[in-house]
Design a protein that fits this description.
Elements (H helix, E strand, L loop, with lengths): L1 E6 L13 H18 L4 H6 L2 E12 L8 E12 L2 E10 L4 E13 L4 E2 L4 H6 L23 E2 L3 E2 L13 H9 L11 E10 L8 E9 L2 E7 L5 E11 L5
Antiparallel strand pairs: 1-3, 2-5, 2-9, 3-4, 4-5, 5-6, 7-10, 8-10, 9-12, 10-11, 11-12
Helix pairs in contact: 1-4
Length: about 250
């Protein structure tokens, strides 16, 4: 497993003084980027070949959000390649070895000139050391939404700060937008997001408008981030509960 060490910064915490979900996702995403760079198949390698790894799905489970100043270790391991798909696990642990959060991800390798999936070559496959799949309760990749009952929220326009090096909305930005739409019962004192799932469907670009639609189901909330025609760019599901509760 590839790992790096860090410490929770003030810029990464929420109003409760703990690491925010968005910052946790950033740690995991940065870990995979560091891994690819150190393996010699990072951004420049991909750019020269007109390739990019595009995230298709997240599943993040949080046991505890670390607080300001805590020292943490972040790790990632690719556990399978199937055609143009790559599978990665992530984990964040405390300095004492307490498992704070873990995740599963599905990535698609894209030919950015032809805009269709591409199979990784031998050089890329050999650069990554395949490891063991993390033991966890794996949720389905697809997120089912109710046929009706969604509440529309105020639309927003994609700005430059939403974009990544592929010039489309970064996967973490969708999660941040969806978090702003969480219903009040998910924000009550003592409540936190225990699990987050995201399914990415279309790419949003500079100037596009995103129309959030929120669906509530008990302690769960799903946010569909749609285009003008009602087709989702991304669907995000949050399981909100007191962190002391069992899943």
């Amino acid at each position: 497993m590839y790992t790096f060490h860090s410490r929770i910064r003030y810029s990464e915490i929420d109003n409760n003084g703990c690491l925010s979900l968005g910052s946790l996702l950033d740690y995991f995403q940065d870990c995979s980027t560091f891994h690819s760079e150190d393996a010699g198949v990072g951004l420049e390698y991909l750019k020269e070949r007109h390739l990019a790894w595009v995230l298709s799905a997240w599943q993040i489970v949080v046991e505890r959000y670390p607080g300001l100043g805590e020292k943490v270790d972040i790790g990632t391991v690719p556990y399978a390649f199937r055609g143009f798909l790559g599978y990665r696990n992530f984990v964040m642990e405390s300095e004492q070895g307490e498992r704070l959060a873990y995740a599963n991800t599905l990535w698609t390798l894209m030919d950015m000139e032809k805009m269709h999936p591409a199979r990784p070559g031998t050089e890329m496959l050999e650069a990554y050391e395949i490891g063991e799949k993390l033991p966890m309760d794996y949720a389905p990749r697809k997120i089912a939404l109710p046929a009706s009952g969604g509440a529309g929220m105020e639309a927003l326009e994609v700005k430059k700060h939403h974009l990544d090096t592929n010039n489309h909305v970064n996967n973490g930005q969708y999660i941040r937008i969806a978090l702003e739409c969480l219903p009040a019962e998910c924000l009550e004192e003592g409540m936190s997001v225990r699990q987050m799932r995201a399914e990415y469907k279309k790419q949003a670009h500079l100037g596009d408008r995103i129309y959030p639609v929120v669906y509530k189901n008990g302690g769960k909330a799903a946010v569909s981030l749609n285009n003008r025609e009602g087709q989702p760019y991304c669907i995000v599901e949050f399981d909100c509960r007191n962190m002391g509760e069992e899943s």
